[in-house]
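Re: your question about Tolloid

S., sorry for the slow reply, the queue was backed up all week. Below is exactly what I fed in.
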Amino acid sequence: VCGGHIIGDEGTIQSPRFPENYAPDANCNWVITVPKKFQVALTFQYFNILYMLGHCELDLIAISLNNISSSLETHKDCVYDRVEIYDGAVAEPNNLLSKLCGQVTAESVISNSNVVLVRFVSDSSVQKSGFHIDFVRGSFSLRQKTNLYFIDSKSPQRSSVLVLELDECASDTHGCEQRCVNQIGGFRCECDIGFSLRPDGKTCQSTCGGVIKATNGTFFSPNFPLNYPPMKNCVWQVEADEGYQIIVNFTHFNVEGMKTECAYDYVLIEDEGGALLRDYTQPLVYTSTSNRIKAHFVSDNSVEKSGFAAYFIKDLDECRKDKGGCQQLCVNTIGSYRCECESGYVLADDGHNCKEGGCHSQLHDPDGEITSPNFPMDYPKGKTCNWHFVTTPGHRLLLSFEEFALEEHNMCKYDHVEVFDGGDAQAPSLGVFCGNGVPPDISSSSNQLFLTMVTDASVARRGFKAFYSSGKCEWRIIAEAGRGVELRFAQFDLEKEANCEFDYVEVFDGLDRSDEHKMGHFCGDELPPVFVSTGKKMLLVLNTDDSEERKGFVAEYRSSAPATARPVTKPTPPLVCEVTLLML
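Result:
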């Protein structure tokens, strides 16, 4: 998502995901407006856009300023990824100020009017890191110097001018502490992200926080991408108009701390809607419930890391008023919204209303929620509905019912739910359920589970709500009769935590998952020992949560002589060493 209308004296625009590679098939338009009687000066602080030989062999800038035009290189147009700048708010050829691709450093473009249009287009092939553009209002004119050359044109309507501008930043005499930016007829000093310019206009000081009212933008930890300083307490307040929400995407995050607590360095997002308060050491995307948030960054006096980079955009919540015109469900998306329907219904052709549809679903998500048709209202009569759950091979599925209300019968002959341990109703049945009692949790023995609901033509009730998940991987290893299973880990890299509560591997002697048969429970990056079962079966279980991801493990197994006793291994506690020095 990119583009928008920016009104102000100065500011910044960036390609989507900057400084990461921009997205394919982007078409972004920024309209920048400064007060009347002023012009807009845009300076490219960073520019890296795909170019192709024969189309944009080098950097290409085509500038049109009334009756003066300048072409820094006379090659064909940039036809793949490009940035175009127009004088005014309309992308007309006669208004083109600049067209760029490839790599450009510290180029400036000046408008004639108080409005410019910046357009970014990318195709579906190669992506680069994009661009960072600063803009500022002012009154500008070309300065005639000894290095200004006029070239007469044959056309009386137009003349051409080639300006060779002195780059004051090329020498070491500019005096800028961090960054020097060349401009037409001069230069200016700038500071890296996380620093601000001192009043002398040349040296920089560490800073953080502030009030942000732009439509979209970025904020960073001090010194980013270098390590942040100790003992910082920064607050960014991001404000949007009434009816908008704020979406914050952390594109980089490396802060001291454990995910179970944020006792050291952390980011805290305060939502003034009062609905949610989150503090993180590992955030990804946050969507506000109000039009104003505060992002706090706190560091202590010990370990420093590279910190964070966050991109934000302000989005109108179209679902806030009358569900956006949707009959059942409204889902807000960035820049738009969509209507959805309850289980058992499908979206009508108008995209807003719902109509009764089939109730046969195949679900591949690792977890989710299902409900009977029309839940929590009464389910329809005379229906047969199926849900087929499929997850990654090696995983099992867990089905948990939260609410359950079907027609009562001691044999469940009328309205009922039946669960099968496989991919269809021919698989072994795991249970038939009816009435008001919530069924127990149901686990599959493989990566598939099949649920069917049958209703007759008489009584109808609320139905059910259930959740499914597949967070664990299981490998059942079976050797030939009279032999045991030997398991050896060749590589091991899981999330490290003192009690191995988050991501961990468990090894069981046999297929029984009780503590009595558990041979080991491991996490971190140390190789577990070699295991040998006492019988012909062994069970290996991997459990992962939804936060940190690591490489995992590689294990080898083979048939061997069975063990005579079952080893019991617990997570290795931290090693504490005491050293006594004797001074002679």
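The longest strand covers residues 39-49. The two ends are 71 Å apart (CA to CA).

Happy to talk it through on Thursday.
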